[in-house]
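Table S2 (continued). Query chain:
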Amino acid sequence: MIVFGVDLSCPVIQTLICVAVVVSLTAVSLLRFYAYISCGYYHGRTRMDGKVVIITGANGGIGKETATEIAKRGARVIMACRNLETGKQVRDEIAETTKNDNVILKKLDLSSQKSIREFAEDVIRTEPRLDVLIHNAGTAESKFKKTEDDVEINMATNHFGPFLLTHLLIDLLKKSAPSRIVVVASELYRLASLNLNKINPTSSWCPAYYYYVSKYANICFTLELARRLEGTNVAANCLHPGMINSGIWRNVPFPLNLPLKLIVKGFFKTPAQGCQTSVFLACSEEVEGVTGKYFMDCAERALSSGATDESKAKKLWELSEKFADLRATDPKI
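Corresponding output:
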């Protein structure tokens, strides 16, 4: 059989093909093994009985796994989810798996300021304390879209929403101190720049780019938040969970989604692996009193000089107050 001028029936060619296949499979196996052993796991057994933890986007991906791990430790877990139908199924699954029936489902759409305010009012009315707020929910939309509040969808959900929610719940966090705020950011921030003159774009040739921008904003927000919370005993840290095989990649358009699917399935972390740093920052005694830091694989990591620029973070904060429609009557940080 001749293919591209090569005689595939030749024993030498067949041997070379076999060797190439074996080498390729070995390389893939070694890469996957390296990814496994280099993945930071949190093995601490810290209990969280009596504590209240809010996890946004807890009905799937690393949010679901984070909720499961926290529930195992005895905490009261509030799953803040946009899709209540899916959330109900996941809530029941977590309660059964962890034998912790103190898992609560509440409606929260981070792209809607109205929904955020309703959720915060409900929490303040029904919860006497809040020990950990985990900003996990995120979206990576492939089409340009504005929310009902006239904010670009990626920035609204991933940055302005968490910014507003943190403000609305900050008094409860202070009341419950020592407490923690955990923000799920991403190393993909390195692919973006934070253009403060275009933080809420009116159009975009590549809407998915604003997912990267929102992750950049997550980091700047966390660092500025930590500075403003000094002396309150409320810690704020952010993290990169790793590249995760989760639903967030479903919005990648054809044909880019085809090779990406192979990469995701072959080399990305599972959601269970991806939640480890979130759980670590939520309950580990190792980070008690640690604030304003960036973590990956349960260890502190360095950030780019741009991400640690205090003047940029302060300006972003001021702009966020505007786009999140922060009001004079809202709690101050």
